[in-house]
Amino acid sequence: MDEQPTTAAPRKNDLWGQVIRFGVVGAFSAIVDLGVYTLALHLGLWVHAARALSFICGTSTAYALNRRWAFGVEGGRRRALGFVLLYGTTFFVILGVNALALAVLPDRWWTVTLAWAISQGFGTVCNFVMLRTVVFKD
To answer: Where in the numbering of this chain does the GtrA/DPMS transmembrane domain appear (predicted)?
Structure first.
């Protein structure tokens, strides 16, 4: 009996597979984001400008990897526009969450990193839900 070869392409409606792939992409994109944030702060960039720059770098990484690997869809203007609108909205949300966390957390050596992590976590949950249900939905 001949067996059909399996492909490594992600199944579009496989929720747990998408969650795992999204998590891997998110972890990698977060490393990019935090690395840029830390470097920008080290170079003396204003904290909010550093967060904006790091968000753009992490987001660009996330889009490229999520579109093809996590959600297994082709690109296109509509999807790219949806992604830009979603992440543009998320951008302002994470800046607000980051600023709020900086305002309420005690002034310690770990405060900036924790504020980044809180804003990143909040944005990640919002992004997964919207990517799966709106942007990368077929």
So the answer is: 21-136
Residue partners of 112: CB distance under 8 A and separation at least 6: 41, 47, 102
pTM over 0.90: no
Phi-psi region of 75 (alpha: psi -120 to 50; beta: other; left: phi over 0): beta
The 10s digit of each residue's pLDDT in 76-120 is 788 878 888 888 898 899 889 999 999 999 999 999 999 989 998
Could you tell me how far CA 44 lies from the centroid of its own chain? 24
For residue 131, give both structure tokens: 């990517």
Burial class (CB in 10 A: 0-12, 13-18, 19+), 95: middle
- Contacts for 132 with CB less than 8 Å, ≥ 6 apart: 15, 18, 71
Distance in angstroms (rounded) separating the CA atoms of residues 52 and 70: 24
Checking 45-48 for CB contacts under 8 A at 24+ apart, the result is 47/102, 47/112, 48/95, 48/98, 48/99
Contact 9, 73 (CB under 8 A): no
